[in-house]
Amino acid sequence: MTMATPTPLSRLFTVLLTGVLAGLVLAVAVLPVNLVFGFAARAALGNYAALPDALRTPATPQRSYLYANDGKTLITTFYDVNRTDVTLAEIAPVMRQAIVAAEDRRFYDHGGVDLRGMFRALVSNVTSGTEQGGSTLTMQYVRNVLKTDPNRTAEERAAATEQTIGRKIQEIRYANALEQRLGKDEILNRYLNIAYFGSGAYGISAASQRYFSKAPADLTLAEAALLAGLVQAPEAYSPIDGDADAALTRRAYVLDSMVATGAITAEQATSAKAEKVKLNPSEQANGCAATVSSREGWGFFCDYLRRWWMEQPAFGDTVAEREQALRRGGYSVVTTLDPQIQKTAQQQATSIYGYDNKRAVPIAAVEPGTGRVLAMAVNRHYSLDDNPDGQLNYPNTVNPLISGGGSVAGYQAGSTFKLFTMLAALESGRTLSTGFDAPSRLPTRYAAGTDDSSCGGQWCPANANPQWMDGYRMMWDGFGRSVNTYFVWLAEQVGQDKVVEMAQRLGITFRAEADARFAENNAANWGAFTLGVSATTPLDLANAYATVAAEGTYCAPVPVVSVTAPDGQRLSVGDPSCRQVLDPDVARAATDAARCPVGQQSAFAQCNGGTATAVNRILEGRPVAGKTGSSEQAATETFVGFTPQVAVAGIAANPDDPTDLVGSAVQARVIEAVARIIRTAVDGQPQESFTAPSRDLVGTPRRPVERDPVVPDRRPTDNNDLRRWFQNRG
């Protein structure tokens, strides 16, 4: 095979180095053995303790793997260099034999430096005009480590491949020092894990997957010989990116070399040469945008995990260090993503609006008591691809539409915020039996403008359906029928600042600047807060309701079950971070009232109607609770549902245009979507019941009023009535 013609500079280098090495070879030939080795140990060669850290403790960059919560389903990988270390036992014996035959036949005979082989190669380079390699596997390993060491500067890494005598002598010293301490198998294993095989694959594990989509333990003789032949000129010989014929020629050379070393017979070599190259190439996903295409929506969860990772001090002091840890640290990350729940959530989100619809339904599912995020779905492609003119976030986006952050503040969630008013009232000593004769409109002390919500300059919220909502209400039926005037009155009794503080305690984050400013400076006068005018996200909302489901235990949302380093050590990062933020009895009381909206009955038989009664039918009577929410003029429609095992929130909205009203008709579909996700989440799990609150928080209930449990389809009679109906609908 014809090799590249060396340049004048490289030929000069080889001449000079030949002279130096010729002297060493002559010394070996004429001096006593003990004198030569004494000289080598003291002068020409090195010692293990003086080696760079990267050679003594390899720090080669490796890709990190992200798996679903089953620990098997791959979400994606992160890497700068496509590499994963494997043990020698995980590499087929023919692969080990092939690489030795191809690159260093005397590997098991020399001490790291094959002076005779190097001298022969250098003489051939000078006399024949072709370049031959004289480096042993150990020397190649040294060079590969130094040129990829992430702890060295770019200049230092570049120096590892410079054509200088000093660099070559240093390489010899380092190789000899390694051989003094490490066994041949250890060196071979390290070499196979760092060598570049072309087409972006570093190490034998990545190469086996890249070319044949199999583990290195399963390589055949012909496949192993092909891969071993790539190392000399990876890009030129690569059958994917380079010259397939050259790859076959090189494979034949490796097979002949294996015969020469005694690894295989001539017959085996002939048979392997006759095999056609049967590539089964696979791309290794890199980053969140490269998640498997059949798993739409997984990219948004991946992105949430990546954002979480960048906030963890365990992975570095700076964001840059944490990014490097993710892409070069070789971590195995088992995430909290449940494939079945995610699949259902994505199906439900896209069943409401398609991928090309400007409106979206972001959905999040959280596990109470741990904060583990089980699913994140939305009818968008997680992609950096361009969108049609005038379309900001659809059909492609990488913005965190489900979790919030960056430019995404969230969406108004309407009456789902009444939960925080109820909790604040219960915590203040009021009972579920706290009653109020709720009028159609309620004058408040809060100033208002001149629109329909004003009564003489004061804010006057109205009930969406007076016939069904007005009258004497307690927390049960006030929550079940979503009576605006009852909860605005209740919030006034408790103090709006207490309601705002309760929401924050349960994890509601004010990402919109105006909301954050109001919460900090004027919470006591935030009269409409209980009606859900603050922006929030499905993840925040699901986790807040999960806190109630867990009887007052708040857990910070977390996307990780475990993080394991390449050495097998499991990091403590990602363990649930929980604290008790509510008295358990207060949470139980709120849950008892939250049974009403979904068409179930409280422990004290006080539910007499709900706005989401389809949930009980879909869950087939399984204990469940929840709340609907509509923002002003039905700009958004929300539903949150929960059992002791899962909490799910979905919000229909236009992420780019708050003035685009989704309309009240979509609420029923959001309710059904969330209920079906809950059903998937609890399928196969034991049925768990909610614990009834103590009598201390019940008070003196009345006999329930038997009325139609479904919200009547009362059509507004005039424009003002229509506006109020949309504006204040629960």
UniProtKB/TrEMBL annotation:
Which residue numbers delimit the Penicillin-binding protein transpeptidase domain?
A: 364-670
Q: Where is the Glycosyl transferase family domain?
A: 74-258
**What Pfam families does the annotation carry?**
Transgly, Transpeptidase
- Positions of region (Disordered): 685-730
- This protein is called what? Penicillin-binding protein
* Top-level lineage group: Bacteria
Q: Write out the entry's keywords from A to Z.
A: Carboxypeptidase, Glycosyltransferase, Hydrolase, Multifunctional enzyme, Protease, Transferase
Q: Which InterPro entries does UniProt cross-reference here?
A: Beta-lactam/transpept-like, Glyco_trans_51, Glycosyltr_51/Transpeptidase, Lysozyme-like_dom_sf, PBP_transglycosylase, PCN-bd_Tpept
What is this enzyme's catalytic activity, as reactions? [GlcNAc-(1->4)-Mur2Ac(oyl-L-Ala-gamma-D-Glu-L-Lys-D-Ala-D-Ala)](n)-di-trans,octa-cis-undecaprenyl diphosphate + beta-D-GlcNAc-(1->4)-Mur2Ac(oyl-L-Ala-gamma-D-Glu-L-Lys-D-Ala-D-Ala)-di-trans,octa-cis-undecaprenyl diphosphate = [GlcNAc-(1->4)-Mur2Ac(oyl-L-Ala-gamma-D-Glu-L-Lys-D-Ala-D-Ala)](n+1)-di-trans,octa-cis-undecaprenyl diphosphate + di-trans,octa-cis-undecaprenyl diphosphate + H(+); Preferential cleavage: (Ac)2-L-Lys-D-Ala-|-D-Ala. Also transpeptidation of peptidyl-alanyl moieties that are N-acyl substituents of D-alanine
Sequence ranges of Basic and acidic residues compositional bias:
703-724
